[in-house]
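4.2 Preliminary Data

To establish feasibility before requesting continued support, the project team ran the inverse folding procedure on a target of 429 residues. The structure was first converted into the token representation described in Section 3, and no sequence information of any kind was made available to the design step. The complete token record follows.
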């Protein structure tokens, strides 16, 4: 069968997603500039788009891209006299490379790929950047996504994403962020930022905040891939494995979370036969790795332990809700949050009845940070409906529908409000 140009382009896109992070990471170590490194990598991608449709995809496409990027780097270094401009920064090491550029550049880029990737992770998620900028830059450099793809995933204009990426690169350059893995307390602080960015990406894919779709699976897949990379790069950090465990287990429910029409299916109504047992097994293994490491459980490991309770139950009734409530209480002590308390109220209602959950929810209604959080009236409406207080429940579901920005979720909440209205007019038996 003849290979078409479109087939070749699809192969190039697949290779780019796999190899771009490694390629950029190796180049950043040499040129000490994220923006320049990405330009060089893009040059290699353009060369592939020009040549591969005629010559065919190489047996080792990643190596081809790397070699092409190296040659582009050498040309750029010579043409712009970058060696001289960076002489003070790079010193004798680069001066020696000047005489044997090709050989030395090979060694500079190919050596320590894992370390380079880890450095790129910490640069992309540096706290000097805003959260939005960290997400955009991480997806661009480590996820291999185009600006258009990032914009489409987060439902923001493409120029907005492009500006975030450009500003992020400029900020990193102006702040003289070193291309290195931090140590000690700085490592812990920076790692927290890395995990936060990855989980933000995953959450946006798992429960889209805006738009017409309940989920954006591509973002979940990107976040999972990034999490797995970091877990292999820093295997002694329990919270990294905790986050991977949490994402694996939550992602296992993806097929069961929507109907073929795209309508959402809530956790207790899902067909658990559709849950991905491979992802569950991987998640439980990651949780075991997290719990085997020394130290107390962190917030991601605790959330993964909660997700594991659901994953181990064949039916909603078989779920250990009392344990989930206890885990949420432990999480609340570790990271106090009204959202954690709201989640704990659901577990309490399942373990000890809706009245127990409603008592906690009612305490949260005056919490300023939850004033516009649609899940507060949604949870309260659910508990009121279970107690037979349908008129109050309907009002809560309608309020929740007015607060959400996701069209699928809005329809679900309005349907629940209508069901309460119908139940309130139902004649007694």
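Position-by-position output of the design step:
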């Amino acid at each position: 069968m003849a290979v078409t140009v479109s087939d070749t382009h699809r192969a190039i896109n697949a290779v780019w997603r796999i190899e771009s992070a490694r390629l950029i990471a190796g180049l950043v170590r040499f040129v000490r500039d994220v923006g320049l490194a990405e330009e060089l990598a893009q040059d290699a991608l353009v060369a592939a788009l020009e040549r591969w449709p005629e010559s065919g995809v190489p047996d080792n496409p990643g190596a081809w891209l790397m070699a092409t990027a190296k040659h582009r780097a050498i040309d750029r270094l010579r043409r712009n006299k970058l060696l001289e401009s960076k002489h003070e920064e790079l010193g004798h090491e680069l001066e020696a490379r000047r005489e044997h550029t090709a050989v030395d550049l090979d060694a500079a880029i190919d050596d320590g790929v894992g370390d380079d990737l880890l450095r790129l992770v910490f640069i992309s998620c540096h706290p000097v950047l805003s959260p939005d900028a960290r997400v955009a830059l991480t997806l661009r450099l480590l996820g291999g996504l185009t600006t258009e793809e990032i914009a489409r995933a987060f439902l923001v204009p493409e120029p907005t994403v492009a500006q975030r990426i450009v500003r992020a690169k400029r900020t990193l350059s102006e702040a003289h962020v070193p291309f290195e893995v931090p140590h000690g307390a700085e490592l812990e602080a920076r790692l927290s930022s890395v995990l936060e960015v990855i989980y933000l990406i995953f959450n946006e894919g798992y429960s889209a905040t805006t738009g017409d779709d309940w989920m954006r699976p591509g973002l979940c897949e990107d976040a999972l891939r990034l999490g797995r990379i970091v877990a292999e790069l820093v295997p002694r950090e329990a919270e990294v494995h905790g986050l991977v465990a949490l994402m694996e287990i939550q992602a296992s429910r993806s097929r069961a979370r929507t109907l073929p029409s795209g309508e959402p299916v809530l956790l207790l109504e899902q067909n658990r036969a559709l849950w991905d047992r491979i992802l569950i097994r991987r998640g439980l293994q990651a949780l075991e790795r997290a719990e085997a490491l020394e130290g107390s459980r962190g917030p991601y490991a605790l959330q993964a332990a909660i997700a594991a309770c659901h994953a181990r139950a064949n039916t909603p009734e078989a779920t250990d809700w009392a344990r989930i409530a206890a885990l949420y209480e432990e999480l609340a002590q570790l990271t106090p949050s009204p959202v954690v308390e709201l989640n704990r109220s659901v577990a309490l209602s399942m373990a000890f009845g809706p009245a127990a959950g409603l008592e906690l929810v009612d305490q949260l209604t005056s919490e300023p940070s939850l004033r516009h959080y649609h899940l507060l009236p949604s949870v309260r409406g659910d508990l009121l409906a279970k107690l037979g207080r349908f008129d109050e429940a309907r009002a809560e579901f309608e309020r929740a529908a007015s607060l959400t920005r996701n069209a699928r979720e809005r329809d679900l909440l309005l349907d629940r409000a209508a069901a309460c209205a119908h139940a309130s007019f139902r004649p007694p038996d």
